[in-house]
């Protein structure tokens, strides 16, 4: 039965921008250009777009459908739809844990961009040479725990502040403003760099595919395909209910396939536009396209300085402003998922959930900030690394792919919600209908899960090596089984009381 008291979004535009805001984040404007530069440019982008459609789209429709049909967050969505006696809802706890883990390091990194916006606008980097700019990031930002904690706190306050104001007045309204500003800023910067002398080589690298390089390049064909598939999958933040929650807030006026296509379109626009800004600018000023984190923090301030003390400050400030908007849009969207979980599970009020989660997030995010400096000695081996790397590994390499696998199977197999229930919900309303032929059904039930498993296993092999990966996978499986067993025992004990 639909929850009549549940909050809802005020408009279709709000839903689209909020869902897109959750998908659009540092993976689009920071990781996408870096990965594209690392794996050869335009050919990589084409492969990425293919996987975005064949893998990202169906999983997103599944999440939206589960949310809209159940009218619940991940706290109770599977329980609302699963057949009696089935245990799909065991994943609920892992899903919300994924949201917490994601924000534990994401809020810290988001603080970097806010700090750099204010520093760039204030002229902090004017007159600095390359070494000074590197030291400003390594020592003055990452190496300064007080700075990281302060800007982390600012991000958390902004995120939960939006959630405290409510779904429509806070989350929806603020995200609308930020996303609209983000699009305007990015389009303006993309136009600006087009007129910089020497930008042409960057466009050629980014827009002209070199398929021979896929075979003969440094990484090889498989590594490039694997990286493109992983980027397409992870950029949409699928598998931990971050999209499911917004499905639970929308009405049934429009079909979910069309809505998912629009969200993915906005997400892809931001990623592609980021490349149209960064690669021409890098080519014009001799910045290495595969600089990774330094592409934004240690290299691009040099680019902006080369534009002149006034123009460079303005353009640089706008660049880090749109990076901040992209990061904050994800923070607010995921915080809304975190806030909604105890509201659905325990009947908490919004204000109570915001307050408790605000305190919890400050405590939980602090280790990632300290792990970059005074706790840098806390290390989880050569394969994983620091505290924030461990948190990222658990989310990106485990919860996102396995969660997406669970959503796909839940929506397609008879033991779950099932194909008929899923397609009926996906097709409710006006717009593009979900293809229901036998080939698509077979693909979603068998081929798409196989792709996700290949990404999952290949990722472990890539990180731990072919010999060590099976051992780690077995240990992870034992740990998950132990968590489920302990949780079941606790639940039975509490129910007896």
List keywords for this structure.
497 residues, mainly alpha, 21 helices, 76% helix
SSE arrangement:
Layout: H1 12-23, H2 26-38, H3 42-70, H4 77-81, H5 91-121, H6 130-142, H7 145-164, H8 167-193, H9 200-207, H10 211-216, H11 220-234, H12 244-247, H13 256-285, H14 293-306, H15 311-346, H16 350-370, H17 381-384, H18 387-412, H19 419-427, H20 438-464, H21 469-496
Helix pairs in contact: 1-8, 1-13, 1-15, 2-13, 3-11, 3-13, 3-18, 3-19, 5-7, 5-15, 5-16, 5-18, 6-14, 7-8, 7-15, 7-16, 8-13, 8-15, 9-13, 14-15, 15-16, 18-20, 20-21
Which word captures the global form?
Answer: globular
Cα separation of the termini: 28 Å
Which spans of ≥5 residues are poorly predicted at pLDDT below 50? none
Q: Over all CA atoms, what is the radius of gyration?
A: 22 Å
Q: Number of helical runs?
A: 21
How confident overall, as mean pLDDT?
84
Tell me about this structure.
This protein is an all-alpha fold. 76% of the residues lie in helices and 0% in strands. The protein is built from 21 helices and no strands. Helix 6 (130-142) packs across helix 14 (293-306) and helix 18 runs antiparallel to helix 20 (438-464).
